[in-house]
TrEMBL record:
Cellular compartments annotated: Cell membrane
Keywords from the UniProt entry: Cell membrane, Disulfide bond, G-protein coupled receptor, Glycoprotein, Membrane, Receptor, Signal, Transducer, Transmembrane, Transmembrane helix
Species assigned in the record: Takifugu rubripes (Japanese pufferfish)
Name assigned to this protein: Glutamate receptor, metabotropic 6b
Domain G-protein coupled receptors family 3 profile: 582-856
Length: 907
């Protein structure tokens, strides 16, 4: 910086030089005047461009950057030319510029940007006087009203902190770090490119559209890469459904083998094939090289940010590894006017660009001769006749459009400000001299015009431009020229042509990048703690169904799960069918028993007055046969479809038939026992042995069963139920609801318990009467009947209760019960009545009347018979007893015929 002053003496000038040098210490490194481009104008804009790359250690600047530096710089000057020649935009006002080189280094750019604020630094000149006592005349430094730039986000952040202090608005053409959207810290910063938060949203939408939920991230160390990844991670957390497997930072100065380690780390979560990459071109290239070196071509699926975009340089010689990579780039267009402008630039017509000669040498690979500079041997000498695009490769740099839009945005804001503050004034009026920065910022935020590519240029409250991106995929197969193919756009929402995408080897199916694959139908997700995108699949087993993707729930008790376990369906209801094998056998036995019982009853009725029928005790026999008939009949009630009526009859007749049978037999055995016991004491017959008495006793015993059943009816009326627990095996496909009566196993046993008590009591009396001669009574046939019946029911108990846990419980228990009852009835029928029917039908000659004797004579005869039989078997000390005359005893027995004795004891 130089101060030009008019001083009449050297003392005054010396003081000014001291003040000037103090200020230069803040702005000039090592006392070197920074190089810059100065374009005169009524209003001056600042410009920051990475004309040179970052230099090696100790050197601020490196080689010239043709595209990102020279192309962008020339784009600003081209835009200034267009604006200054436009009669409708800032008429009679020319825009000038002070353009500086940032050398792609944030600290160096900060030093350079102090040039923009020196006019705003207040200097205290009160103690500086010339010899005549007047203050010095110090020319006013040029005032920069706004700055175009910078390029890198880290550079823009550094510069924005300084410009904010002096209220100088700044419009960037390439800085996309989300951090710069913080209006509280960077309120004077705006940009015509969308922030990386939009880019991150677009990349997230792409990832989700491809069905990925498990990806890794790669970021170059620095503001751009780290901020981009941070934005992606934050947005993905807010959106949910996406997990970051690895988040790896590429060091600014990577050591040898660093990229091989990065690939190894990525392979630790090999399922995360998708890699979100915010990195510079060099880092992208070295990542691809390391993947190829590790023989992982086609494994990683890259989603690259705009730093990759549609560039060839990062993938050169690594095309097979990059195949299928999806990249995004802010929506842009090539500006034809700039191409015409730039390709016409030469050393003669572009002297305002102080770095153009350096660009010329690099672009045409030649050397310009300059005074004092030794010419390099082996390098072609520049002739000056070379032409851009004709003698060198030329492709417009991608951010040229945004540089032009940034300059135009500043111009439109100044134009609106001039219209409001200086209506009708030609040139800059007093209200705009100087331009107030905070007011200009408001006008910048209010601009809305069609930019150089025909798209709208505007800013939101944070100074950000709308997000507009083109989406590319690098494809090699099935296209004539391998390269980037536009497959979609993103403008606040994604439009992606999935059918146009293709992957390694031309595959059209989108590869998967998931931690866990979707669960099969009927499987729930058991999440891995801390990783919401990873889970284990667990089958909903038993009677569970999939309530939601994370929960298995039990079906209602009357339902079972669908085969795919996505819901529940009603459980089929069954009952014991007549055609079932479990029913056929009991029904067959019952029919045979009913026919046999009917035959016996019919025979007894037909021969009702014959001696054998009368001797068998007709009254009790008919009662007993009725009980037997009911026992057989209960089989049909037990198999019939349950209803209220059927259930009522089951309760009534289940125990009634057995109760009737065993009450009659108990009465008979008790009568026989009492007769012979009484005969041992006296010849007087015992009481209550007449047929009427026997019937009364029998009906009293039966009434106990009936009373219990009717009490049961009153306490719990009969009804049907559907038992869903009885046939509920582990496999729900075999689950059935069983239609049944409301009779539990316990109530069924209680219903039979009284009959069993009668049966056991009858058995006891049969045992006590076993000594009575077989010729004289029915005690022994009744005894054999009861012994056999007890065996049948002893076998019934373990079978009935042993099947309580079986899925065929109802069928087995019903069959067991009915068969046991039919067998017990058959035993009684067969042992007590079939022999009599046989005699009546086949030996009618034995069914004749004999004369009767008194009770005393019969008892004495029976006693004699018993004693004789005992004496015939006694031998004492080898001595033989005197045997009675057998012929006399047999003649005695013949005198008391069997049917007569039976008639006496069995009436």
């Amino acid at each position: 910086m130089k101060f030009h002053q008019a001083c009449p003496d050297l003392s005054c000038c010396a003081k000014l030089m001291v003040f000037s040098s103090l200020f230069q210490l803040c702005t000039i490194k090592q006392g070197t005047q920074p190089q810059s481009i100065k374009i005169e104008g009524d209003i001056t804009l600042g410009g920051l461009f990475p004309v040179h790359s970052r230099g090696p250690a100790g050197v601020p600047c490196g080689e010239v950057k043709k595209e990102k530096g020279i192309h962008r710089l020339e784009a600003m000057m081209y835009a200034l030319d267009q604006i200054n020649s436009d009669p409708d935009l800032l008429p009679n006002i020319t825009l000038g510029a002070r353009i500086l080189d940032t050398c792609s280094r944030d600290t160096y750019a900060l030093e350079q940007s102090l040039t923009f604020v020196q006019a705003l630094i207040q200097k205290d000149n009160s103690d500086v006087r010339c010899s005549n006592g007047e203050p010095p005349i110090i020319p006013k430094p040029e005032r920069v009203v706004g700055v175009i730039g910078a390029s890198g986000s880290s550079v823009s952040i550094m510069v924005a902190n300084v410009l904010r202090l002096f209220a100088i608005p700044q419009i960037s053409y390439a800085s996309t770090a989300p951090e710069l959207s913080d209006n509280s810290r960077y309120e004077f910063f705006s940009r015509v490119v969308p922030p990386d938060s939009y880019q991150a949203q677009a990349m997230l939408d792409i990832v989700k559209a491809m069905g990925w939920n498990y990806v890794s991230t790669l970021a170059s160390e620095g503001n751009y890469g780290e901020s981009g990844v941070d934005a992606f991670q934050q947005i993905s957390r807010e959106a949910g459904g996406l997990c970051i497997a690895q988040s790896i930072k590429i060091p600014r100065e990577p050591k040898p083998g660093e990229f091989d380690k990065i690939i190894k780390r990525l392979m630790e979560t090999s399922n995360a094939r998708g890699v979100i990459i915010f990195a510079n071109e060099d880092d992208i290239k070295r990542v691809l090289q390391a993947a190829k070196k590790s023989n992982l071509t086609g494994h990683f699926l890259f989603v690259g940010s705009d730093s990759w975009g549609a560039k060839i340089s990062p993938i050169q010689d690594q095309e097979d590894v990059a195949e299928g990579a999806v990249t995004i780039l802010p929506k842009r267009a090539s500006i034809d006017g700039f191409d015409q402008y730039f390709t016409s630039r030469s050393l003669e017509n572009n002297r305002r660009n102080i770095w153009f000669a350096e660009f010329w040498e690099d672009d045409f690979k030649c050397k310009l001769t300059r005074p004092g500079i030794k010419y390099e041997l082996g390098r072609r000498k520049c002739t000056g006749d070379e032409r851009i695009s004709r003698d060198s490769q030329y492709e417009q740099e991608g951010k040229v459009q945004f540089v032009i839009d940034a300059v135009y945005a500043m111009a439109h804001a100044l134009h609106s400000m001039h219209t409001d503050l200086c209506p009708g004034s030609m040139g800059v009026c007093d209200k705009m001299d100087p331009v107030e920065g905070r007011m200009l910022l408001q006008y910048i935020h209010g601009v809305n015009f069609n930019g150089s590519a025909g798209t709208g240029v505007m800013f939101n409250e944070n100074g950000d431009a709308p997000g507009r991106y083109d989406i590319f995929q690098y494809q090699m197969s099935n296209i004539s020229n391998p390269g980037y193919r536009n497959i979609g756009q993103w403008t606040n929402h994604l439009r992606l042509n999935l059918e146009e995408m293709q992957w390694s080897g031309g595959d059209r199916k989108i590869p998967e990048s998931v931690c866990s694959f979707p669960c099969e139908s009927g499987e729930r997700k058991k999440m891995v703690k801390g990783v919401p995108c990873c889970w284990h699949c667990e089958l909903c087993d038993g009677y569970q169904y999939l309530l939601d993707e994370f929960t298995c729930d039990m079906c209602p008790y009357d339902m079972r799960p669908l085969k795919n376990r996505t819901g529940c369906r009603p459980t089929p209801i069954i009952k014991l069918e007549w055609s079932s094998p479990w029913a056929i056998i009991p029904v067959f036995l019952a029919i045979l028993g009913i026919l046999a019982t009917t035959g016996v009853i019919a025979t007894f009725i037909r021969f009702n007055d014959t001696p054998i029928v009368r001797a068998s005790g007709r009254e009790l026999s008919y009662v007993l046969l009725t009980g037997i008939f009911l026992i057989y009949l209960i089989t049909f009630l037990m198999i019939a479809e349950p209803s209220v009526a059927v259930c009522a009859f089951r309760r009534l007749f289940l125990g009634l038939g057995m109760c009737i049978s065993y009450s009659a037999m108990l009465t008979k055995t008790n009568r026989i026992y009492r007769i012979f016991e009484q005969g041992k004491k006296s010849v007087t017959p015992p009481k209550f042995i007449s047929p009427t008495s026997q019937l009364i006793i029998t009906f009293i015993l039966i009434s106990v069963q009936l009373l219990g059943v009717f009490i049961w009816f009153g306490v719990m009326p009969p009804h049907t139920i559907i038992d869903y627990e009885e046939q509920k095996p582990p496999n729900p496909e075999f689950a059935r609801g069983v239609l049944k009566c409301d009779m539990s196993d316990l109530s069924l046993i209680l219903c039979l318990s009284y009959s069993l008590v009668l049966m056991i009591t009858c058995t006891v009396y049969a045992i006590k009467s076993r000594g009575v001669p077989e010729t004289f009574n029915e005690a022994k046939p009744i005894g054999f009947t009861m012994y056999t019946t007890c065996i049948v029911w002893l076998a019934f108990v373990p079978i009935f209760f042993g099947t309580a846990q079986s899925t065929e419980k109802m069928f087995i228990q019903t069959t067991t019960l009915t068969v046991s009852m039919s067998l017990s009835a058959t035993v009684s029928l067969g042992m007590l009545y079939i022999p009599k029917v046989y005699v009546i039908i086949f030996h009618p000659e034995q069914n004749v009347q004999k004369r009767k004797r008194s009770f005393k004579a019969v008892v004495q005869a029976a006693t004699v018979s018993t004693r004789l039989s005992q004496k015939s078997s006694d031998k004492q000390n080898g001595e033989s007893k005197i045997e009675p005359d057998r012929s006399q005893f047999q003649s005695f027995l013949s005198y008391w015929p069997q049917n007569a004795l039976h008639g006496l004891f069995s009436m």
